[in-house]
């Protein structure tokens, strides 16, 4: 059975998307990227909302750009090999391999996918993740916390949900970014 992991870069004040600007620095360096590559290489399926998919589809062709460093090439190859499910009512086609569109997020169907999976899943994007969290499907939370307070935006955790989590791993990077992995209890 695969685990469902929710992981995003977040601001120090808990936002996965800033109301204005970006989430700050720390995630773009080679040390962090290599760590993320190793962490998510075993993922077999990415669950995306439309907006997150449109951001991540960059990796479909990133390996074709000249002079890419090895850690970027590796992430692109790993991403291309994984299955992708995009939940969207508006998207009519996808531009990446191993990708399908689902019109609605169905918690029972995702639970069935998890129970039949040999590899882990990720749910990416705060809106889609909120649905998975509310349905009790998320097994682990991986936060990459920047050193920036952004003051508003889309929160990593949805409002109105209580979670009791156990910290199982943490790491501080030279860039100031902090990684924290939590498991549901």
From TrEMBL:
GO molecular function, one term: 5-amino-6-(5-phosphoribosylamino)uracil reductase activity
Domain Bacterial bifunctional deaminase-reductase C-terminal residues, every copy: 3-178
GO biological process: riboflavin biosynthetic process
InterPro entries with a match to the protein in the record: DHFR-like_dom_sf, RibDG_C, Riboflavin_Biosynth_HTPR
Pfam families noted in UniProt: RibD_C
The protein's name: Deaminase
Record organism: Mycetocola zhadangensis
Taxonomy of the source species: Bacteria, Bacillati, Actinomycetota, Actinomycetes, Micrococcales
């Amino acid at each position: 059975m695969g685990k469902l992991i929710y992981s995003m870069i977040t601001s120090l004040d808990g936002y996965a998307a800033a109301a204005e600007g970006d989430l700050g620095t720390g995630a773009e360096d080679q040390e962090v990227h290599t760590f993320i590559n190793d962490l998510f290489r075993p993922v077999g399926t990415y669950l995306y909302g439309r907006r997150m998919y449109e951001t991540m589809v960059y990796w479909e062709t990133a390996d074709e750009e000249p002079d890419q460093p090895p850690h970027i090439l590796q992430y692109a190859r790993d991403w291309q090999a994984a299955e992708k499910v995009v939940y969207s009512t508006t998207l009519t086609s996808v531009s990446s391999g191993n990708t399908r569109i689902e019109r609605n997020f169905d918690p029972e169907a995702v639970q069935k996918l998890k129970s039949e999976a040999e590899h882990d899943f990720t749910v990416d994007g705060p809106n889609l993740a909120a649905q998975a969290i509310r349905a009790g499907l998320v097994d682990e939370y991986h936060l990459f916390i920047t050193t920036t307070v952004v003051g508003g935006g889309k929160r990593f955790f949805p409002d109105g949900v209580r979670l009791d989590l156990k910290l199982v791993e943490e790491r501080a990077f030279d860039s100031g970014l902090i990684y924290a992995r939590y498991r549901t209890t």
